[in-house]
Amino acid sequence: MYSFQTIIKAVSYISIWGGLVIIHVLTMMPLIHISIELLILDGFVFSSLLIIIGLAYKILIKSKSPDLVIYPQTSYNYISLGLFFIILWLGSGLFIMNIILTHNNFNLLAPTIPVRILVGLLIYTIAAVYDYFSSHKEIEEENIDCTDDCKEVCEEVCIEANKEGLLPEDNSSTNSELLEHIAVKYGQKIQVILIPDIFYLQSDGDYVIIFTEKGKYIKEQTMKFFEEHLPRTKFVRIHRSCIVNIEMISRIELYKKQQQMLTLKNGHQIKASTNGYKALKSVLQL
Fold first, then answer.
1. Which of 7, 43, 146, 209 has the most CB atoms lying inside 10 A of its own CB?
2. pLDDT digit string (tens) for 215-241?
3. Are 121 and 81 a contacting pair, CB within 8 Å?
4. How many helices (H) and strands (E) does the chain have?
5. What backbone phi and psi angles, to 5 degrees, belong to 167?
6. pTM
7. In the sheet where 269-272 sits, what is the strand order?
């Protein structure tokens, strides 16, 4: 059974799609002298491509999957992605319309190409601005830090933030035995992973994905456990869902305001939260 939020999200996407079709038809009607049926078909094709490309962007680029490279949100990358978006959207739409329409009707679309480019740029600009400010809002939320003075009035908030890994922990409070290796089930076998061979660990619900040069392995364990049992001079929790082996870091560069991007020796790129970067700098003695 679908949840209420899933139904609402589906209805919102359908509403957006329907609105785009109507706007597209009204925009192109004065420019194309073809039947209303073909205008609606034109609007259906180009609006559907907008939704599909938008969903693909959300799934692929915004995904938290560690297998996907996260690109820095710089002006250059926004412009590059915008050009790719326009070419993909316009090229795909015209290709489909060329297949559907007759040669004469397709030639009527030529004068509308500049308008379509302008519409695509407008839509992409709105989406890019929203993405930029929403990402900065996430940074501001990550920067919420509770001090000793607020414990009496916001104790529950502090506890919740600590569970999420947003608050630094006292290293002296943990005297747990450090791990020398990790044993994981790999098919019908048991794989023994040496601690120095680990690139990083990524949380995945009730499991942790361990990345090594030979591949990735899934361990039914918590990030809290590994944070307490891995050497704190070698492993740093740079985000609430990621612990990195500092010896596997290739370079660190600015991702966006107040946030850094780590590139590892295996080519993976991982964002560090504000507090995570502070902890990393402390270990690296920067």
1. 43
2. 888 888 888 899 889 998 899 998 888
3. no
4. 8, 10
5. -110, 140
6. 0.46
7. 249-256, 259-264, 269-272
